[in-house]
Amino acid sequence: MNDARTLVSSSASLILALTFTACGGESAQTALAPEKPAPTTVTAELLGRGADVYKSNCIACHGPLGKGDGPSAATLDPKPRDHSSRAYMDQLSDQQIADTIVQGGALRGYPNMPSNPHIRGNDLAALVAHVRTLSRGPDEVRLVDLKQQ
Questions:
Q1: Alpha carbons 126 and 78: distance in angstroms, whole number
Q2: Which among 102, 111, 119 is positioned nearest to 55, based on CA atoms?
Q3: φ, ψ of residue 70 in degrees (nearest 5)
Q4: What is the pLDDT of residues 11-45, one digit of tens each?
Q5: What distance in Å separates the CA atoms of residue 77 and residue 143, rounded to the nearest whole number?
C-alpha cells in the first residue's frame, strides 16, 4: 500500500512539475497579471488633445490657465485647486492626477470636483499632460506615466 501511495504522489509531483515547465514556468497569478503600460510620450498632438479635454471638462472651475478662477469657482467652497502651482503639482504623481480626474476631488479634499469616469485611455493621458503644462510649461512635460489607462 505504501508503494502505491508513493507512486501516486511521485506521479502527481512529476505531472505538476512538467505542467509548470511546459507553461513557461510562470505562476497562474503572474501569467494573469496585467502588464503596466509604458509611459506615454508627450507630443504636440497629445497636448492639443489634452487642451481640448480640459476645455470641455475643467475650464469652468479651474479657468483657462488652471488657476482655480473659472466662472463657476466663485460659488465653490473650497475653491478649485490651482493647477498652475508648481509647488503643489510637483507633489503629485501622474497617476494621482489621473485618479483625481476619474474619481473626483474628494480624494484630495475637494469634494466639489465631480468624478469623470468618461475620461480614460489616451484622453486621460492627454489631460494629465495638459494639466502638467499649466505648472511646468510644455517643454518640461515629456512623459505621462499611468499604471493603467
A1: 26
A2: 119
A3: -70, 170
A4: 545 444 444 444 444 444 444 555 667 899 999 99
A5: 33
How far is the C-alpha of 35 from the C-alpha of 84, rounded, in Å? 32
Q: Which helix (H) or strand (E) holds 41?
A: strand 40-41
Answer whether 61's CB lies under 8 Å from 68's CB: yes
Burial label for 125, CB within 10 Å (0-12, 13-18, 19+), is: buried
Q: Give residue 133's pLDDT.
A: 98
Q: Which burial class, exposed, middle or buried, applies to 133 when counting CB atoms under 10 A from its CB (0-12, 13-18, 19+)? A: buried
pLDDT recorded at residue 32 = 56
For helices 94-103 and 121-136, the axis angle rounded to 10 degrees is 120
At 74-124, the pLDDT tens digits run 999 999 999 999 999 999 999 999 999 999 999 888 899 999 999 999 999
Q: What is the pLDDT of residue 20?
A: 44
